[in-house]
Amino acid sequence: MGGRAGPTDAVSLPRRRRSPMIDTLPAARPVPLDPMAEALRLARLADHRQGPNPMVGAVVVADGRVVGAGHHQRAGGPHAEERALAAAGERARGATLHVTLEPCAHTGRTGPCVARILAAGIARVEVATLDPNPLVDGRGVQALRAAGVAVAVGAHAEEARELIRPFAVWVTTGLPLVTWKVAMTLDGKLATAAGESRWISGPESRRRAHRLRHEHDAVLVGSGTVLADDPELTTRLDVADPRQPLRVVVDGRLRTPPGARVLRRAEHPTLVVTRPGAPAARRAALEAAGAELVEVSAPDGRCDLRELAGRLGERGCTSLLVEGGSAVLGSCLTQGLVDRVVVFVAPILVGGRDAPDAIGGVGIPRLADALRLRRLRAEPLGDDLCLTGER
Ligand SMILES: NC(=O)c1ccc[n+]([C@@H]2O[C@H](COP(=O)([O-])OP(=O)(O)OC[C@H]3O[C@@H](n4cnc5c(N)ncnc54)[C@H](OP(=O)(O)O)[C@@H]3O)[C@@H](O)[C@H]2O)c1
User: Fold this and answer.
1) Per residue in 65-88, pLDDT tens?
2) Model confidence, pTM
3) Which end of the chain is less enclosed by CB atoms within 10 A, N or C?
């Protein structure tokens, strides 16, 4: 610990795109520095590999120049502030620290950052957002102010909060942030009446879907999807070492075949979630095939997905991607398990009363109780439209 910032922390300050106007300015004119934007850029370098901790970046600025920078790379490893301060060394004395998340004042797996900041002689701290962790939540800022350090909170706050969203939900509720991912036809079908669903969406949407898997700690489908599509649920992306989420199948009657693709290529064992009284022989066969069996209660005959979300939270899953199918999405809706929605809409119509609708289950009877999404955005993706929204 306390190692110097690694090569990925090397600072290259954002340069303004040259316009003919700027070309006429003297070459030595200083480039405007937005240290918090730089700290956010560094935070993103963790690329979701630091879980269950949040992505955090920090920059130390002295005399208008960046003298140290770093980001949090792995849970249990040095925090962003520690890396940035180590890189700055003596130059941190009297300098300003810009950090995307409030420094911690408690001792977790690493020592408190506030103590490090004080020891380094930092004069001013700019914090993008407070840490929602009940162990911190303003205490870091208070401790710095009490020691005479000037603190300002709020630069780029919205971006910084977006960056730590899964962590914020998990640390305050014990549940992962739940995102639905659905590929549907323009008439809202998940598959044709004959059961064909490959491929509804185009290659650009499918690439985005793999990126979503990379960004999530766990991915969940129902046994109906396993039986219909036999998905692998792995991340297949053109990046070095893509993250493989924990794969979860909810399967009350244990209909998942022991030879299903979802049980192969295990980085983690696949969780098969079932209800009390599931057939013992099928249980044994799935365990023999490498699955980890998890039992949750099923008051109405269907596995309690909230209880499952709590179990995933206990294992340190801060984000869960629900990929279907229709019945499971329906249960998530009525159990209030929807934080974000990503819908790929393909420009095709298939119709058919027996074709599964995107969301099944009993639904919400009253319009007044419908789940109304905020911040709805539409983005063309190849021939498809990608719609995103949040609760
Ligand atoms: N286009 C897409 O993005 C997409 C994605 C996924 C699936 N699909 C399509 O969707 C179809 C499958 O959908 P589906 O509705 O038949 O299956 P599903 O939602 O994948 O699985 C439903 C099964 O999950 C089990 N389950 C356990 N707990 C549950 C709970 N709380 N709520 C609901 N189900 C629970 C139930 O089996 P037990 O009764 O045994 O517990 C239930 O029959 C297929 O046609 C597939 O191709 C499309």
Assistant:
1) 999 999 999 999 999 999 999 999
2) 0.90
3) N
